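Annex B. Sample input.
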Amino acid sequence: MFWVMTPLNFKIYGSLYEPSAQLLTSIELNFLDVSKVVLLIILIPLALGLFVQKRFPNLAKKMAPYFRIGSILIFIAFVVIAFSKNFQLFLDYIHLVIGLVFIHNLLALGTGYSVASLGGLVQRDRRTLAIETGIQNSGLGLVFIFAFFDGMGGMALVAAWWGIWHIVSGLSLASFWSRKPVATLSFEGQ
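Annex B, continued. Sample output.
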């Protein structure tokens, strides 16, 4: 569903702010092209991973460390490219970018946890929803920026710092929560 929602959100939210609306019009962001990127970056790897995990669990277990390292290296490459092409811009606006990304991430983590709490979810699911809401796919954001917006400086910087910070905050929160385990439910045999 997100391969439909991502381009739809670009169109809806981008049109709400006049400078963004003009940019989207001049770039002519194509719904089908955006959907293809989401399909290639998210859906196909996810489907292949699930297929291999289901059909070849031993192979998946052996390959998992390599894919983790590979995905981190690819992300680092995107971040390095974003910063190298826009380093002076980064220095000029670092004080704004860091603060905005931090506040956005804090709000997202808090909102995810709060909505899960209001929904009556158990602690384990609250944590999951907080992480899922707070740690967005900045790699996909960087691919969009380079594919459709020609790596425009401000966007690339925000997405690059966004990705770095989400790794830091996500790992920190997961580490903190791992020291405070919650009871897990077993669904085996059901």
